[in-house]
Write a structure and sequence with these properties.
There is one protein chain. The model has no long low-confidence stretch (mean pLDDT about 80). The chain contains 13 helices and twelve strands. An eight-stranded mixed beta sheet has the order 5-2-6-7-1-8-9-12. A two-stranded antiparallel sheet has the order 3-4. It is α/β, with parallel strands linked by helices and about 350 residues long.
Length: about 350
Protein backbone atom coordinates (compact mmCIF):
# COMPACT_ATOMS: atom_id res chain seq x y z
CA UNK A 1 0.00 0.00 0.00
CA UNK A 2 2.85 2.40 0.81
CA UNK A 3 4.49 1.66 -2.56
CA UNK A 4 1.19 2.32 -4.32
CA UNK A 5 0.76 5.64 -2.52
CA UNK A 6 4.35 6.59 -3.29
CA UNK A 7 3.77 5.79 -6.99
CA UNK A 8 0.55 7.87 -7.03
CA UNK A 9 2.42 10.74 -5.37
CA UNK A 10 5.14 10.63 -8.02
CA UNK A 11 2.70 10.49 -10.90
CA UNK A 12 0.75 13.46 -9.52
CA UNK A 13 3.85 15.64 -9.57
CA UNK A 14 5.24 17.38 -12.63
CA UNK A 15 8.94 17.36 -13.49
CA UNK A 16 9.16 21.08 -12.73
CA UNK A 17 8.07 20.30 -9.19
CA UNK A 18 10.95 17.88 -8.63
CA UNK A 19 13.89 19.36 -6.74
CA UNK A 20 14.57 22.67 -5.06
CA UNK A 21 15.37 25.56 -7.40
CA UNK A 22 18.70 27.29 -6.76
CA UNK A 23 17.98 31.00 -6.39
CA UNK A 24 21.54 32.37 -6.39
CA UNK A 25 23.33 30.85 -9.40
CA UNK A 26 26.28 33.28 -9.42
CA UNK A 27 28.53 30.57 -8.00
CA UNK A 28 27.59 28.25 -10.87
CA UNK A 29 28.36 30.66 -13.73
CA UNK A 30 31.98 29.56 -13.91
CA UNK A 31 30.85 25.96 -14.45
CA UNK A 32 29.79 26.89 -17.98
CA UNK A 33 32.71 29.16 -18.85
CA UNK A 34 33.60 28.93 -22.53
CA UNK A 35 36.62 26.86 -23.50
CA UNK A 36 39.74 28.36 -25.07
CA UNK A 37 39.00 29.37 -28.63
CA UNK A 38 40.32 27.66 -31.75
CA UNK A 39 39.53 27.19 -35.44
CA UNK A 40 38.28 23.90 -36.84
CA UNK A 41 37.33 22.98 -40.41
CA UNK A 42 34.80 20.35 -41.46
CA UNK A 43 35.16 19.18 -45.07
CA UNK A 44 33.49 16.55 -47.23
CA UNK A 45 31.86 16.03 -50.58
CA UNK A 46 28.27 17.07 -51.28
CA UNK A 47 25.78 14.92 -49.37
CA UNK A 48 28.35 13.39 -47.00
CA UNK A 49 26.85 14.91 -43.86
CA UNK A 50 28.76 18.16 -43.25
CA UNK A 51 25.68 20.12 -42.14
CA UNK A 52 24.47 17.05 -40.24
CA UNK A 53 27.78 16.91 -38.35
CA UNK A 54 27.59 20.66 -37.68
CA UNK A 55 24.04 20.31 -36.32
CA UNK A 56 25.00 17.32 -34.17
CA UNK A 57 27.89 19.25 -32.63
CA UNK A 58 25.80 22.39 -32.16
CA UNK A 59 23.25 20.35 -30.21
CA UNK A 60 25.97 18.77 -28.04
CA UNK A 61 27.40 22.22 -27.28
CA UNK A 62 23.96 23.63 -26.43
CA UNK A 63 23.07 20.88 -23.97
CA UNK A 64 26.50 21.31 -22.38
CA UNK A 65 25.93 24.98 -21.58
CA UNK A 66 27.53 26.89 -24.48
CA UNK A 67 26.30 29.82 -26.54
CA UNK A 68 26.14 28.72 -30.18
CA UNK A 69 25.84 30.66 -33.45
CA UNK A 70 24.98 28.90 -36.72
CA UNK A 71 24.51 30.26 -40.23
CA UNK A 72 21.56 27.90 -40.78
CA UNK A 73 18.34 27.87 -38.77
CA UNK A 74 17.88 25.16 -36.16
CA UNK A 75 14.51 23.76 -35.11
CA UNK A 76 14.94 23.41 -31.35
CA UNK A 77 12.74 22.94 -28.29
CA UNK A 78 12.39 25.83 -25.89
CA UNK A 79 14.61 24.24 -23.26
CA UNK A 80 16.67 21.19 -22.35
CA UNK A 81 16.05 19.83 -18.87
CA UNK A 82 18.44 17.22 -17.49
CA UNK A 83 15.69 15.99 -15.16
CA UNK A 84 13.86 14.64 -18.21
CA UNK A 85 16.81 12.54 -19.40
CA UNK A 86 16.72 9.09 -17.82
CA UNK A 87 20.38 8.29 -18.55
CA UNK A 88 21.52 11.53 -16.87
CA UNK A 89 19.31 10.86 -13.85
CA UNK A 90 20.74 7.34 -13.55
CA UNK A 91 24.34 8.56 -13.90
CA UNK A 92 23.98 11.29 -11.28
CA UNK A 93 22.18 8.91 -8.96
CA UNK A 94 25.00 6.37 -9.13
CA UNK A 95 27.75 8.97 -8.61
CA UNK A 96 25.86 11.02 -6.00
CA UNK A 97 25.50 14.18 -8.10
CA UNK A 98 22.72 16.40 -6.87
CA UNK A 99 22.67 19.37 -9.27
CA UNK A 100 20.64 19.22 -12.47
CA UNK A 101 20.54 21.98 -15.09
CA UNK A 102 17.89 23.37 -17.37
CA UNK A 103 19.14 25.30 -20.43
CA UNK A 104 17.08 27.87 -22.30
CA UNK A 105 17.89 26.90 -25.89
CA UNK A 106 16.06 29.83 -27.47
CA UNK A 107 18.46 32.22 -25.72
CA UNK A 108 21.63 30.13 -25.99
CA UNK A 109 21.28 29.50 -29.75
CA UNK A 110 21.47 32.44 -32.16
CA UNK A 111 21.01 32.55 -35.93
CA UNK A 112 23.82 34.26 -37.84
CA UNK A 113 22.93 35.56 -41.30
CA UNK A 114 25.94 34.88 -43.52
CA UNK A 115 24.80 37.60 -45.97
CA UNK A 116 24.75 40.45 -43.44
CA UNK A 117 27.04 43.29 -44.62
CA UNK A 118 28.82 43.67 -41.26
CA UNK A 119 29.44 39.94 -40.79
CA UNK A 120 33.24 40.24 -40.48
CA UNK A 121 33.07 43.06 -37.93
CA UNK A 122 30.40 41.14 -35.99
CA UNK A 123 32.53 37.98 -35.90
CA UNK A 124 35.57 39.93 -34.75
CA UNK A 125 33.62 41.31 -31.78
CA UNK A 126 32.20 37.98 -30.52
CA UNK A 127 33.56 36.32 -27.37
CA UNK A 128 32.79 33.20 -25.28
CA UNK A 129 30.85 31.29 -27.94
CA UNK A 130 30.93 28.62 -30.65
CA UNK A 131 30.38 29.86 -34.23
CA UNK A 132 29.48 27.49 -37.09
CA UNK A 133 30.00 28.91 -40.60
CA UNK A 134 28.36 26.69 -43.22
CA UNK A 135 29.70 27.43 -46.72
CA UNK A 136 32.58 29.14 -44.93
CA UNK A 137 34.40 29.86 -48.19
CA UNK A 138 31.86 32.66 -48.73
CA UNK A 139 33.34 34.42 -45.70
CA UNK A 140 37.02 33.45 -45.95
CA UNK A 141 37.45 33.08 -49.70
CA UNK A 142 40.75 31.64 -50.95
CA UNK A 143 40.76 34.15 -53.84
CA UNK A 144 41.34 36.99 -51.39
CA UNK A 145 44.93 35.90 -50.86
CA UNK A 146 47.03 38.64 -49.29
CA UNK A 147 44.24 41.17 -49.79
CA UNK A 148 42.37 40.04 -46.67
CA UNK A 149 41.36 42.94 -44.46
CA UNK A 150 42.96 43.49 -41.06
CA UNK A 151 39.61 43.03 -39.29
CA UNK A 152 39.09 39.66 -40.97
CA UNK A 153 42.58 38.51 -40.01
CA UNK A 154 41.91 39.50 -36.40
CA UNK A 155 38.77 37.35 -36.35
CA UNK A 156 41.01 34.39 -37.29
CA UNK A 157 44.09 35.01 -35.18
CA UNK A 158 42.48 36.14 -31.92
CA UNK A 159 40.10 33.27 -31.21
CA UNK A 160 41.98 31.63 -28.35
CA UNK A 161 42.18 34.60 -25.99
CA UNK A 162 38.60 35.64 -26.76
CA UNK A 163 37.35 32.09 -26.02
CA UNK A 164 35.69 31.97 -29.42
CA UNK A 165 35.71 28.77 -31.49
CA UNK A 166 35.17 29.09 -35.25
CA UNK A 167 34.05 25.94 -37.06
CA UNK A 168 34.28 26.46 -40.83
CA UNK A 169 32.33 24.07 -43.07
CA UNK A 170 33.25 23.72 -46.76
CA UNK A 171 33.54 21.03 -49.42
CA UNK A 172 37.30 21.33 -49.87
CA UNK A 173 39.99 22.88 -47.65
CA UNK A 174 41.61 24.82 -50.51
CA UNK A 175 38.37 26.79 -51.00
CA UNK A 176 39.12 28.60 -47.73
CA UNK A 177 41.74 31.34 -47.43
CA UNK A 178 45.24 30.19 -46.55
CA UNK A 179 45.28 32.48 -43.48
CA UNK A 180 42.29 30.59 -42.10
CA UNK A 181 43.80 27.18 -42.90
CA UNK A 182 47.08 28.13 -41.25
CA UNK A 183 45.26 28.72 -37.95
CA UNK A 184 43.14 25.54 -38.03
CA UNK A 185 43.73 23.24 -35.05
CA UNK A 186 41.96 20.16 -36.44
CA UNK A 187 40.52 19.19 -39.82
CA UNK A 188 37.49 16.85 -39.90
CA UNK A 189 36.47 14.87 -42.98
CA UNK A 190 32.90 13.54 -43.22
CA UNK A 191 32.19 10.32 -45.11
CA UNK A 192 28.68 8.92 -45.56
CA UNK A 193 28.49 5.16 -45.98
CA UNK A 194 26.46 2.11 -44.91
CA UNK A 195 27.35 -0.41 -42.23
CA UNK A 196 27.53 -3.98 -43.50
CA UNK A 197 25.74 -5.30 -40.41
CA UNK A 198 22.81 -2.84 -40.79
CA UNK A 199 22.62 -1.34 -44.31
CA UNK A 200 19.19 0.21 -43.81
CA UNK A 201 20.35 3.53 -42.31
CA UNK A 202 23.16 5.93 -43.30
CA UNK A 203 26.34 5.44 -41.33
CA UNK A 204 28.62 8.46 -40.85
CA UNK A 205 32.38 8.33 -40.33
CA UNK A 206 34.36 11.41 -39.29
CA UNK A 207 38.15 11.41 -39.64
CA UNK A 208 40.38 13.94 -37.87
CA UNK A 209 43.89 15.20 -38.55
CA UNK A 210 46.12 18.04 -37.46
CA UNK A 211 48.91 17.32 -39.96
CA UNK A 212 49.40 19.87 -42.76
CA UNK A 213 51.71 20.20 -45.73
CA UNK A 214 53.68 23.27 -46.87
CA UNK A 215 50.55 24.83 -48.41
CA UNK A 216 48.52 24.44 -45.18
CA UNK A 217 46.39 21.64 -46.62
CA UNK A 218 45.47 18.66 -44.41
CA UNK A 219 47.30 15.35 -44.77
CA UNK A 220 45.02 12.31 -44.48
CA UNK A 221 47.53 9.57 -45.25
CA UNK A 222 51.23 8.93 -45.82
CA UNK A 223 51.94 6.17 -48.33
CA UNK A 224 55.56 5.82 -47.29
CA UNK A 225 54.88 5.19 -43.60
CA UNK A 226 51.38 3.74 -44.21
CA UNK A 227 49.99 6.27 -41.76
CA UNK A 228 46.31 7.23 -42.00
CA UNK A 229 44.29 9.82 -40.15
CA UNK A 230 42.34 8.12 -37.34
CA UNK A 231 38.57 7.89 -37.30
CA UNK A 232 37.42 10.39 -34.69
CA UNK A 233 33.71 9.54 -34.59
CA UNK A 234 31.27 7.11 -36.22
CA UNK A 235 27.54 6.64 -35.74
CA UNK A 236 24.27 5.83 -37.42
CA UNK A 237 22.18 8.75 -38.63
CA UNK A 238 19.73 9.91 -35.99
CA UNK A 239 16.29 11.16 -36.92
CA UNK A 240 16.14 13.77 -34.18
CA UNK A 241 19.25 15.44 -35.66
CA UNK A 242 17.68 15.43 -39.14
CA UNK A 243 14.57 17.05 -37.63
CA UNK A 244 16.62 19.95 -36.24
CA UNK A 245 17.53 21.49 -39.61
CA UNK A 246 16.57 21.80 -43.25
CA UNK A 247 19.45 20.93 -45.57
CA UNK A 248 17.81 23.04 -48.31
CA UNK A 249 17.82 26.19 -46.18
CA UNK A 250 19.67 28.17 -48.86
CA UNK A 251 16.74 27.51 -51.23
CA UNK A 252 14.11 28.78 -48.77
CA UNK A 253 11.80 31.37 -50.37
CA UNK A 254 13.33 31.06 -53.85
CA UNK A 255 10.70 30.12 -56.50
CA UNK A 256 11.32 27.48 -59.16
CA UNK A 257 12.88 28.71 -62.39
CA UNK A 258 11.78 25.61 -64.37
CA UNK A 259 8.73 23.36 -64.42
CA UNK A 260 8.38 19.82 -65.79
CA UNK A 261 5.78 19.22 -68.51
CA UNK A 262 4.02 15.84 -68.18
CA UNK A 263 0.71 13.97 -68.17
CA UNK A 264 -0.47 11.31 -65.72
CA UNK A 265 -2.66 8.20 -66.29
CA UNK A 266 -4.28 5.72 -63.90
CA UNK A 267 -4.43 2.14 -65.20
CA UNK A 268 -6.24 -0.86 -63.75
CA UNK A 269 -4.83 -4.39 -63.74
CA UNK A 270 -6.53 -5.38 -67.01
CA UNK A 271 -5.17 -2.35 -68.85
CA UNK A 272 -1.64 -3.00 -67.54
CA UNK A 273 -1.84 -6.62 -68.80
CA UNK A 274 -2.99 -5.31 -72.19
CA UNK A 275 0.08 -3.07 -72.39
CA UNK A 276 2.35 -6.04 -71.82
CA UNK A 277 1.09 -7.77 -74.99
CA UNK A 278 0.59 -4.70 -77.19
CA UNK A 279 3.15 -3.89 -79.87
CA UNK A 280 4.62 -0.44 -79.49
CA UNK A 281 6.13 1.41 -82.42
CA UNK A 282 9.62 2.72 -82.11
CA UNK A 283 9.48 6.49 -82.13
CA UNK A 284 12.02 8.50 -84.05
CA UNK A 285 13.98 10.94 -81.99
CA UNK A 286 13.68 13.51 -84.80
CA UNK A 287 11.58 13.42 -87.98
CA UNK A 288 13.07 13.80 -91.47
CA UNK A 289 11.19 17.06 -92.02
CA UNK A 290 12.61 18.55 -88.82
CA UNK A 291 16.08 17.31 -89.74
CA UNK A 292 15.94 18.98 -93.18
CA UNK A 293 14.71 22.21 -91.61
CA UNK A 294 17.57 22.09 -89.09
CA UNK A 295 20.14 21.56 -91.88
CA UNK A 296 18.71 24.52 -93.80
CA UNK A 297 18.94 26.81 -90.76
CA UNK A 298 22.52 25.73 -90.04
CA UNK A 299 23.54 26.30 -93.65
CA UNK A 300 22.10 29.86 -93.63
CA UNK A 301 23.94 30.64 -90.39
CA UNK A 302 27.20 29.37 -91.92
CA UNK A 303 26.75 31.58 -94.99
CA UNK A 304 26.16 34.62 -92.82
CA UNK A 305 29.30 33.93 -90.81
CA UNK A 306 31.52 33.38 -93.86
CA UNK A 307 30.21 36.46 -95.70
CA UNK A 308 31.52 38.85 -93.04
CA UNK A 309 34.60 40.71 -94.31
CA UNK A 310 37.34 41.21 -91.77
CA UNK A 311 39.25 44.47 -92.43
CA UNK A 312 43.03 44.04 -92.53
CA UNK A 313 45.02 47.00 -91.33
CA UNK A 314 47.86 48.13 -93.62
CA UNK A 315 50.96 48.84 -91.68
CA UNK A 316 54.26 50.36 -92.72
CA UNK A 317 57.33 48.16 -92.35
CA UNK A 318 59.05 48.68 -89.04
CA UNK A 319 62.51 50.26 -88.74
CA UNK A 320 63.77 46.93 -87.44
CA UNK A 321 62.69 45.24 -90.69
CA UNK A 322 64.34 47.97 -92.76
CA UNK A 323 67.61 47.41 -90.94
CA UNK A 324 67.43 43.70 -91.69
CA UNK A 325 66.90 44.05 -95.46
CA UNK A 326 69.74 46.53 -95.88
CA UNK A 327 70.20 49.94 -97.42
CA UNK A 328 69.64 48.82 -101.04
CA UNK A 329 66.21 47.38 -100.42
CA UNK A 330 65.32 50.13 -97.99
CA UNK A 331 64.34 52.60 -100.64
CA UNK A 332 62.28 50.04 -102.57
CA UNK A 333 60.31 49.02 -99.50
CA UNK A 334 59.58 52.64 -98.63
CA UNK A 335 58.44 53.31 -102.20
CA UNK A 336 56.07 50.34 -102.15
CA UNK A 337 54.71 51.05 -98.71
CA UNK A 338 54.55 54.83 -99.13
CA UNK A 339 54.21 55.78 -102.85
CA UNK A 340 54.77 59.50 -103.75
CA UNK A 341 51.84 61.70 -104.60
CA UNK A 342 51.35 62.83 -108.19
CA UNK A 343 52.92 66.21 -109.01
CA UNK A 344 54.98 66.29 -105.84
CA UNK A 345 58.72 67.07 -105.63
CA UNK A 346 59.31 63.55 -104.34
CA UNK A 347 57.71 62.07 -107.47
CA UNK A 348 60.10 64.05 -109.69
CA UNK A 349 63.10 62.83 -107.68
CA UNK A 350 61.94 59.23 -107.96
CA UNK A 351 61.58 59.56 -111.75
CA UNK A 352 65.07 61.06 -112.08
CA UNK A 353 66.54 58.21 -110.04
CA UNK A 354 64.81 55.65 -112.29
CA UNK A 355 66.12 57.36 -115.51
CA UNK A 356 69.66 57.61 -114.07
CA UNK A 357 69.66 53.89 -113.18
CA UNK A 358 68.51 52.96 -116.72
CA UNK A 359 71.21 55.14 -118.36
CA UNK A 360 73.85 53.80 -116.02
Amino acid sequence: LKLALFYIHIMAKQINDIGKKVIDISALVDVFEAQEGEIQQIIGKTGNGKTYEGTRRAWDYLISGYTVYTTWRLILPDYYDEREQKEIVLFKTIFWKKQFYKFNLKDNWKFLDIDRPDLVEFLAGLTDCIVFLDEGQDVFDSYEGTGMSKTKRKSLTRTRHLRKTLIIISQRPQAVAVTARANVTFFYKCVKTKAWWWPFKPYFKVYRTEEMDNTNLPIWEDLQTEWQAPMWHSHFAKNYIYDMYNSWYLRAGVPKSQTVSFEAFNLNVFEKVMLLFMHTKKKELISKENLLQLEKENSEKFKQLTSIEIPIAKKKPSDFLLKLVGEKAKGKIRQISNPPEKGSVREAKVKKDIIRKKQG
